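Students often ask what a holo structure prediction actually looks like on paper. The answer is less mysterious than it sounds. You provide the chain, you provide the ligand, and the output is a string of discrete structure tokens encoding the 3D arrangement of the protein together with S-adenosyl-L-homocysteine.
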Amino acid sequence: MSTLQEKLVARITQDGPLGIDAYMRACLLDPDFGYYATRPSIGAEGDFITAPEISQMFGELMGLALAQSWMDQGAPSAFLLAELGPGRGTLMADILRATRHVPGFHAAMRILLIEASPRLREIQRATLEGFDLAWREDLAGLPGIPLFLVANEFLDALPIRQFRRAEGDLWEERRVDRGLQGLTPCYGEPAPLPALDYRLGDTRQGDIIEIGEAAQDWARAIGAHVARHGGAALLVDYGGWRSLGDTLQALRHKAPADPFEAPGQADLTAHVDFAEIARAALPASATRLETQGVFLERLGITARAQALAKGLSGAALDAHIAAHRRLTHPEEMGTLFKILALTPPGQRPPPGLEPGIRF
Ligand code: SAH
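The corresponding structure tokens follow.
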């Protein structure tokens, strides 16, 4: 078979339509045709550019927020400094540079990178040369020391399932079927789904909701560890509080595309439902969901931008000013992207964030 589409058509012919989750997993992670396995994907040559790739200021401020949290928790002498889905390693590199003068931080940290793509692991190894690095696929069996973790545009890459509200308390799962040409979305038979009962009150017939079981699993693992052993997690992504509507999105050659066309050749993402994340992370506390723009402003991005601007002129200065705007402005990434932190119950939130609601 020479394309992922052929492979998926064969699979559907044998097993029936795929859930959106199985489809996303294949498109992103198939070892032969998956998007992350085959493309440069992130950065200037890729299909999308992420906050750490836009400016070093993003990672620097995230690093200083984590270091402050580490100090608030008594500067533990051994802790895990972890990142989920480090991409090109840029965010971690900026965190490490910004925290290098925080007394004791580097001596206490053990860096842990969670990365599924062997190709990206190689890029991360090169970016982070000179540091002791360990890669893992998940958070099972971590040592019982505090976990300080960041994830930027990781949760949005995880598979979701979609359900459309049918009559009464019934739901139809959105799936991917073979069409006349290639693949096409369809709906399964209406069925009651007790796990979705909590959404019966705020949805109407025809509404689509999304469930990120994989994102919930990561939140559960982080929450359990942080509540028991200490630490903090800064989770940045686009999304909101409670999902509503179809947010499955494909980006191919930097432009929006049909998610069911050319599987494996486009980046597929979905908005993150941070309410699900906060709920799954219990007994850890979740902060209030904050916008990226407000968070970065509170941490002093404008002062940092002015300091960096002093050494720049011409095109480099213009690019720097544009990057500041892009990260914080409401019409750019400032409000679309959100940040949620998870901390041990009752712990003071990381700087720039406020305590959240209790469930
Ligand atoms: N955080 C980076 C990259 C975001 S792209 C940045 O901000 O630039 C998403 C990253 O998550 C990629 O590194 C991808 O390979 C990784 N990834 C996606 N699904 C994963 C999974 N299930 N397990 C581990 N890593 C995953």
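Residues 56-72 form the longest helix (17 residues).
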